[in-house]
Amino acid sequence: MDAFWTGLDQILQPGVLVAIVIGSVGGLAIGAVPGIGPAIAIAILLPATVFLDDLISLVLLLGVYGSSMYGGAIPAILINTPGTPVNALTTYDGYAMTRRGEANRALSLAYSASFFGGCFSIMLALVALMVFGPYLRDLGALFGQRDIFMAAALGAVLLIAAHRRTMGLAALLFGFGFLIAMVGRQSMRDIDRYTFGIEYLYPGFNLIVVIVGIFAISQALFLLTGKDADAPQARLRGSLFGGVAELWRNRAIAVISAGYGTVMGIIPGVGEFVAQFFSYSTARAMSRTPAQFGHGSPQGLIASETSNNAVPAAAMIPLLALGVPGEALTAMMMVVFFDAGIKPGPDIFENSPDFLFSLFISLLIINVLVVLTLLCSTRWIARVVHIPNRLLGCFILILGFVGVFSIRNSLADCLFAAGFGYLGFILRRLDWPLVPVVLGLVLGSIMIEKLTAGSSQIKTLADLVNRPVSGTLFTVILLVLGVVLITRLRRPHRNQP
């Protein structure tokens, strides 16, 4: 409990509170603008975090991460355009309700469901930290270099398996990200890898530069080469407080959806989309009016928004407990940990338990602040959907290059960012996923580091899995691969009459 009160005291510092407010309100506006999304916003903000206190940097990014999906529901419901990719399912029932003249009802339900899902996941994490905290500290003794290597490998396998229909493509892009992670001079053995004698490549590719390029600059190019479209108007009338009562009437669906979001958030490489799929399918199976799903079902909207907002807090658990990011946004936050000299992993429970409480308490405050802001200012926030795409693209491009240059005052970093931005633009035009590249870079760096550090203890391949934790994780990897293989072998037979 001492760690809890210390963490609370850290959050109540003026600088941290200001960061929470800026991140929360900014995330709402960013989520409400189709075409940006939290990944691009965090990519733009990352260079600035180098100059900020570690806790302030993290709560700023958490504010954007935790509030963007609230804001993303606004254009999804009002103009049938998801503000963030994870709000795509919200358009199915939210926009149909708007067309029936129930825009306020849909927004109120989305806010209430999002708030419940977020708080459900956060409270579970806080209770787990308070009850199991003393035992979690012992995890450090169980995890060696090979165990963390195997945990990162499991994250890679789960990430690839999550791309059901494009697993080969996801594996290829992950491998490309892994290859990027290998570039640079290895100081331990004084070996140059893929530097080709170019001095600028000796330190390797800066993670912030790669992220800004692949996410922010590529999106700017995508917006600049597209066309501006006039957004249709949607009128907002009435109160936004009615969703709480309707959520209570559908509390079973809300609890189940929040549970799916929490579980799927903990599993690396899975995230919001799988949580939404299970939640939406379960809600439709439980509903007395399943035919209404996709045509303006309040229960479908509850399932979608509850599950996706339960993921952010849960996604922090594998990052903090194992040092393995589950998706792109937590991978970006890992940069802040590295810059602050904090190594996510089992040791963090022993060394910085108050820091963990600070993060989850800040997430709780963010959810409360976001809902209060939305209830008072939805009509004004909704206007950002009318910003022209090309103006938005120019704004993102300028901020991206300014941020990259500010890291080390290096023109080479700007050129690298431009190169990765063009690569990301090509991937977007091909409709290929960007996340495997970034996670390939992050997880690849972890795997290379741990494999190199533990190389003295590895004589054969069997030495990688001869510890209890690494052996268990390897067994899980084999099970996942087995399930994927069986599923793909059975899929052709399902299409036969």
Protein described:
- By secondary structure, the chain is mainly α.
- Helix content is 72%, strand content 1%.
- The chain has 21 helices and 2 strands.
- The protein has a two-stranded antiparallel ribbon with strand order 1-2.
- 52% of the residues are buried.
Q: How many domain regions?
A: 1
End-to-end gap: 61 Å
Overall mean pLDDT stands at: 78
Strand-residue proportion: under 5%
Instruction: Report the count of strand segments.
Output: 2
Radius of gyration in whole Å, from Cα? 22 Å
- Low-confidence spans: none
Shape: globular
Q: Which structural class best describes the helix and strand composition? A: mainly alpha
Helix and strand sequence: HHHHHHHHHEEHHHHHHHHHHHH
Helix fraction by DSSP (H/I, runs of at least 4)? over 70%
Biggest pleated sheet? 2 strands, antiparallel
Total of helices: 21
Q: List the strand order in the largest sheet.
A: 1-2
Topology overview:
Layout: H1 2-11, H2 14-32, H3 37-49, H4 54-78, H5 90-99, H6 103-136, H7 139-142, H8 145-162, H9 167-182, E1 184-186, E2 191-193, H10 207-224, H11 243-249, H12 251-266, H13 272-286, H14 298-322, H15 328-339, H16 348-351, H17 353-381, H18 389-408, H19 411-429, H20 435-453, H21 468-494
Antiparallel strand pairs: 1-2
Helix pairs in contact: 1-17, 2-4, 2-17, 3-4, 3-10, 3-15, 3-18, 4-5, 4-6, 4-14, 4-15, 4-17, 5-6, 5-14, 6-11, 6-12, 6-14, 6-17, 8-9, 8-20, 8-21, 9-20, 10-18, 10-19, 12-13, 12-14, 13-14, 18-19
